[in-house]
Design brief:
Two copies of one chain form a homodimer. By secondary structure, chain A is mainly alpha-helical. Helices cover about 45% and strands about 10% of the residues of chain A. The first copy, chain A, has a three-stranded antiparallel β-sheet with strand order 1-3-2. In chain A, helix 1 crosses helix 4 and helix 2 crosses helix 3. Chain A is elongated. The two termini of chain A are about 30 Å apart. The N terminus and C terminus of chain A are likely disordered. Chain A binds a DNA duplex through helix 2 and helix 3.
Chain lengths: ~150, ~150
DNA sequence: GTCCCTATTGACATTTTACACATATAGTGC
DNA sequence: GCACTATATGTGTAAAATGTCAATAGGGAC
């Protein structure tokens, strides 16, 4: 998508841009953690299944979101010092987190419906312009005086 | 939706929060302008049809987006001094703006599909937890040693 | 003139996001 | 012990996006 941090024009190659949904990392992490309690570094790779390209998500972002969610009470963590290497902070979803995720789901549903309505409006407009006023851009020849 | 500027907890009343899609105002304004070239103040009310509640969008935000889009070349404007009251800046969509909107549509389509996949994953998880491991939260009884 | 409605613009604060950097542990080779 | 690498977590900061508020200005009603 052009503008903002995702480029600067039409000439883009494909769906290369990151997420369009704000704070989408939160529900993704919750869903992953709900399936399996694990630590941040491990979650990093699992995020691919939600469309995050391999190098897209910075680790620090994931860690920050996890800590924020713990502070909010959606997840809880415990240090895991059993395996080799540095200790891991293993997160799991709390009951509040479950509720929070459910709210997210509801929100995403309505967002999706909203998108659908928008696309439908666009499609309807296309059809109308294709038949009723071909070649015209809408609002042509108005009463504009100043320039 | 909890967190951020839209509250701070589960106990919300309905879909009171604004958009979840970043920069959504842009395509909305483009779509409205494509149907009818008009000025910012007039667009303010028309935005309701895209789910923006009456008092949700500040006028200055709309004006800013319009000016940004003009700078980018997606819309062009002309002063209309014909009617009574202060002069209006009438915007219309350019050819580049048409292309830009088409890109937006494509992006929104993929975003919607992404949401659908996410919701589906959630639903599948629900079903699996309901049948396979009832009452368990996933990852219970792991090899966590440290506290 | 003053108040209100229309219409636009600018300035500032907050929130979100991206990116760079710093820390700590364990294993390997020397 | 020391350098080096991989794993794992954390902080700081700048940029971008968004929200809020104030200011300006024309015209009509009173």
């Amino acid at each position: 998508m052009p503008r903002g941090r995702w480029g600067s024009g039409i000439g883009f190659g494909g769906a290369a841009c990151p997420r369009r949904i704000s704070r989408f990392l939160e529900p993704c992490l919750l869903l992953l953690l709900r399936e399996d309690a694990t630590h941040g570094y491990n979650l990093l790779e699992s995020l691919r299944q939600f469309g995050f390209a391999p190098g897209t998500v910075d680790a620090s972002v994931v860690y920050r979101v996890l800590r924020e969610m713990e502070e909010a009470g959606w997840v809880s963590s415990q240090w895991d010092t059993a395996g080799s290497g540095p200790p891991r902070r293993v997160y799991r979803v709390t009951a509040d987190g479950e509720e929070y995720l459910a709210v997210w789901i509801a929100d995403l549903r309505s967002t999706r419906d909203e998108i659908d309505r928008f696309i439908e409006t666009y499609t309807r407009q296309e059809a109308a312009q294709g038949s009723a006023k071909p070649g015209q851009k809408a609002g042509e020849g108005d009463h504009v005086s100043g320039g």
